[in-house]
Amino acid sequence: MLQKFHQRELSELTRWWKDLDFANKYPYARDRLVECYFWILGVYFEPKYSRARKMMTKVIQMASFFDDTFDAYATFDELVTFTDAIERWDASAIDSIPPYMRSIYQALLDIYSEMEQVLSKECKLDRLYYAKYEMKKLVRAYFKEAQWLDAGYTPKYEEHMENAIVSSGYLMAATTCLVGMEEFISEETFEWMINEPLIVRASALIARSMDDIVGHEVEQERGHVASIIECYMKDYGASKQEAYIKFQKEITNAWKDINKEFFRSTETEVPMFVLERVLNFTRVIDTLYKEEDGYTNAKGSDV
């Protein structure tokens, strides 16, 4: 019964995605709608979260397209105008960006406009502010990496890690996944989330570290900006294997921080169902990136 419910959801999302025709319009980008849905299903599978799942699947797929556009296709000058358009977040900005980017930009505006229509009926429009805030922050992080690449600059490890925590997409995802939930979530909880508390930063560190460990070599072959692996090796004269050991330890310590924060949950006013979403996102990441980049290489994985 539950499986049929999820199949209907995915069918609805697939129709939305096919209508956009982005797989044909943007062959450089990863076409991963099903994988995005699987990811979000791991965050909340219950029928009552259907609305939230559909919102988040669309947002995650768009973020993935942005990531690939920044990493693999657009020129730096094009990214300057696109980033400015995201900051403005207005339909009037569409004429300022290259024609091929306009469909992506309009799709983003449409997704958040749909969210606005739903949330306005429930007096929850404050949530939309936080969703946009985190998406803008994510795009700024993508742009920072594009600036480094354009300048031929390899950042210091600490500088890169601070930006990489954001560009992992985890902070945006963890905040936005709350937007479509029907439970009461206070503005204080959203403020707590965007201020990057320990449990959220620890989860983002796991996401970034696991992604870079399994994917940095392929990304370097494709001419991407240096990952945290390369930055650490350069700054500390470490071998690749030493860097792997370093970040595996960081991942282990981050899991300890997450567990510690759960034990402290009674000392905070953050609802347990919010903390569970943070944890579940991290569990999915642990599954996707355990042995390889199970998102990028989905066709060759068991996911």
TrEMBL record:
Transmembrane segments: none annotated. The keyword Metal-binding applies. Keywords: Metal-binding. Pathway: Secondary metabolite biosynthesis; terpenoid biosynthesis. Pfam families: Terpene_synth_C. It comes from the Eukaryota. Residues 18-257 form the Terpene synthase metal-binding domain. GO terms for biological process: terpenoid biosynthetic process. GO terms for molecular function: magnesium ion binding; terpene synthase activity. The keyword Transferase does not apply. This is Cembratrienol synthase 2a. It comes from Solanum tuberosum (Potato).
